Amino acid sequence: MPVLPWSTIDTVLLDMDGTLLDLHYDNRFWLQHLPQRYAELHGVSRAMAELELRPLFEQHAGTLNWYCLDFWSRELRLPIRELKLEIADLIALKPDADTFLAAIRKAGKRVVMITNAHRDSLSLKLERVELAPYFERLISSHDYGYPKESPQFWDALQADIGFEPARSLFIDDTLAILRSARQFGVGHLLAVRQPDSRAEPRDTQEFTAVEDYRELLEGL
Fold first, then answer.
1. pLDDT tens-place string over residues 8-35
2. Helix, strand or coil for residue 100?
3. Which of 55, 139, 160, 187 is deepest in the core (most CB within 10 A)?
4. Is the full-model pTM beyond 0.90?
5. Does domain 6-23+92-217 have CATH number 3.40.50.1000?
6. What DSSP letter does each residue of 144-200 carry, written as one string?
């Protein structure tokens, strides 16, 4: 992990799920809990539930619908918010993420959350993990109508908060989103090696990976 050139970074943009929060909660919900509850509530087998859900997930992956609880509630005829509450005890902060947030705020950096999470999902998580005080703004891509994978998201973010891309650091666990940020001109990009603490580490390809938030504080 190279030392970040903190003197050239004014703004820190941070993803939430998989970056600051353990992705285990989201993976458990979408891959296990939702198919099980879909099967129970629609009176089908678990195998049939997965056969019905998989093409829908594949069709909408990377779009704003993928992250929208209202969309999935309508599409699946299920109370998604209530179902997410059923395993909310799994929502957890990644190790030392709060130490990192406190240090960059103390150092005078502008800290902004940018998440694809729906506002209801964001609220659910902020009720269980105290993140809001560390941030100047908490921005959901649903506020703009475009996911972070889209160039239009970055245009909207620029118009909204007026940051300087070349003097910004962005950390995310999704490579397609990091590539979109790079295309926009964000100068410092880091991927997350292990978004889900109970899954295998990922290949972050061309991006330097975060494995320990304390390491990022060197030279701050």
1. 999 999 999 999 999 999 999 999 999 9
2. helix
3. 139
4. yes
5. yes
6. TTS-TTSHHHHHHHHHHH---GGGEEEEES-HHHHHHHHHHT-SEEEEES-SSTTSP
